[in-house]
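Q: My labmate handed me this sequence with no annotations at all. I'd like to see what the chain might look like in three dimensions before we decide whether it's worth expressing. Could you predict it?
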Amino acid sequence: MPSVGLDISDKSIRFLGFIKKKDGFILGNYAEKKINPGIVETGKIKDERKIKEVLVALKNEHKLDFVRVALPEEQAYLFSMNVPLVKKRQLRESILFQLEEHVPIKAVDAVFDYEIIKERADSFVVQVSVIPIQVVESYARIFTESGLTPVSFEVEAQAIARAVIRRKDQGTYMIIDFGQTRTGISIASEGSVLFTSTIDVGGAMLTDAIAKEFGVDAREAEKMKREKGLGQEKENKKIFSTIISTVAIFRDEINKHFIFWHTRKEIDQYIHQPIEKLILCGGDSNLHGLVDYLTKSLRMKVELADVWGDVSIPPRYVPEIAFRDSLTYATAIGLALADQNYD
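A: Here is what I predict for the chain of 343 residues:
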């Protein structure tokens, strides 16, 4: 059942799939479809009829059948916990009994999954992801009623980590998904996502500030943002001054989460390793000068994600999607990687 990874945000739907060849995988179908404001808000489906219209159009135009879907990070809870040593088939029940101690929703109103990240002599250390059942049901409903078959659901941050961190990499990284309306911050260590957070700072705020300051429309402001950004050239001074206050908030939020990770008391030293670098993805991570600005102001290594690094591609094959655009497809790529027997 070859599937595509599909990512729904407040402003767009993106999907991407791979085609299997004898010597690896090549890029298959991919597309982005803008959606009107109010259809999806902070990850919640507000207008099922309209979102289904978009999904049906994508299904018909691109001949889609099976999809792997990202669930919204804003609606998810991820945490780590110790569970007394039991038989593995009893582990889910043991987690269920403790679930309400860790999330502000009742167990009967939640859907959860877990991953064992360490097995000790007397207990398991597990990473648990929880989403309200009504969110999962609404996502399942819009796909099945659109004629699409969901193969899997997973939290957005988990899919992104699969795309931007190599399979056998045991390091600890902060992943920044800088999007239009919000930014997802997650921390992955030894192959598992152990922390997620969402901040209400996105690239649209920079675009709006430029449009207001220079009296241009949104399209022209977006172009100015992408071309000039945080460039320190003399002719860019006014744009730099216009957006730097918002970018500084973005930087401060990253720094706050960095400090939190390194100062919190955790259940196990295993999941308290120092962050080695920041990895940027999302459409607005392309902002000119952003990597240099964050590197200098945070005094740590910052780099743009390589979303193709774990794709088993044939020798000398180069995906036709531009690098700049590939950063917006990180979630969809991570989802689609599950078709390559990743796990």
